[in-house]
Design brief:
It contains 5 helices and 18 strands. With 284 residues, it is of the alpha/beta class.
Length: 284
């Protein structure tokens, strides 16, 4: 690997430290850095402009400096270029990250020598349907969330799996999560942890009115339909933690697995279960 696109959390206050490290790496090795974001203080002598159209011929890897939220935002860059993501954790948990800032030199050296593996992460395709027409569509790496937003009361959601009725629930909302997203918001809502290699979708209701309504796991091949009704005010559709569209009475959110995926670089031999024990204190 020689050509690296760089995406930095725009809110990180010590970007100059990152620039200094990257400059040393560039001086000591034949590598190229390409800028993705339009940060005003981005050193032009350090970064080349991103090729247009950018693809895997131009970019070997995307270095993402930030936490899990920053990696989710970089998902679109990975889909655009086809390049894998290497997360360098600057946040708190960093569950999706494989490296940290002090280890960046050794991480890049491993990449140059081919000492890494690629792990494919499943995406879900999310569509918002209103009056029989699809008015919004997006891919999610973590989750798609229906949330009651400003409504003071519970909302009603009817769930179907490939046109087969599953259940109705009154709740604050519902999360449709990928295996990657099963350790994020869905886990906080009581959902199960899925191994990232699995092909499945987790539905985790948010504060359901009836205790008998529990999180469920569906095959990724199912088309999950969530119809929203009983609204006093507009609800919200969130994709990977971002509010994207208001939901109106009678709208349907359709979720199924996407044929596309995002590649993540694996440098260490740490297993998924070791990461769970270390970062989530599993079993402690």
């Amino acid at each position: 690997m020689q050509n690296f696109a760089v995406y930095i959390n725009p809110d990180f206050s010590h970007k100059k430290n990152i620039y200094t490290l990257l400059e040393k790496l560039k001086d000591n090795s034949e590598i190229n850095f390409f800028s993705i974001d339009s940060i005003p203080d981005l050193p032009k002598e350090l970064f080349k402009p991103m090729p247009k159209p950018a693809n895997r011929k131009h970019i070997d890897c995307i270095l993402v400096f930030g936490g899990d939220g920053t990696i989710l935002k970089a998902k679109d860059i990975a889909l655009l270029t086809g390049a894998p993501i290497l997360g360098i954790n600057l946040g708190y948990l960093g569950f999706l990250s494989e490296s940290v800032l002090p280890e960046i030199a050794s991480s890049i050296e491993n990449l140059k020598q081919g000492k890494y593996r690629l792990l494919q992460r499943m995406l879900i395709n999310c569509r918002l349907k209103r009056e029989g027409k699809i008015i919004y569509e997006a891919l999610a790496l973590n989750d798609a969330v229906i949330y009651k937003a400003e409504s003071p009361g519970l909302i009603h959601i009817r769930i179907k799996a490939s046109s087969r009725y599953v259940f109705d629930t009154r709740c604050d909302g519902i999360i449709a999560a990928t295996p990657t997203g099963s350790t994020a918001y869905s886990l906080s809502a009581g959902g199960p942890i899925l191994a990232p290699e699995m092909k499945a979708i987790v539905l985790s209701p948010l504060n359901p009115h009836i205790l008998a309504i529990r999180p469920m796991v569906f095959p990724s091949t199912e088309l999950l339909t969530m119809k929203v009704y009983g609204l006093r005010q507009a609800a919200l559709l969130q994709i990977d933690g971002q509010n994207v569209m208001p939901i109106q009475e009678g709208d349907e959110v359709l979720v199924t697995s996407s044929q596309r995926s995002v590649s993540f670089i694996k440098l260490s031999n740490r297993t998924f279960y070791q990461i769970l024990r270390r970062k989530l204190n599993l079993g402690k």
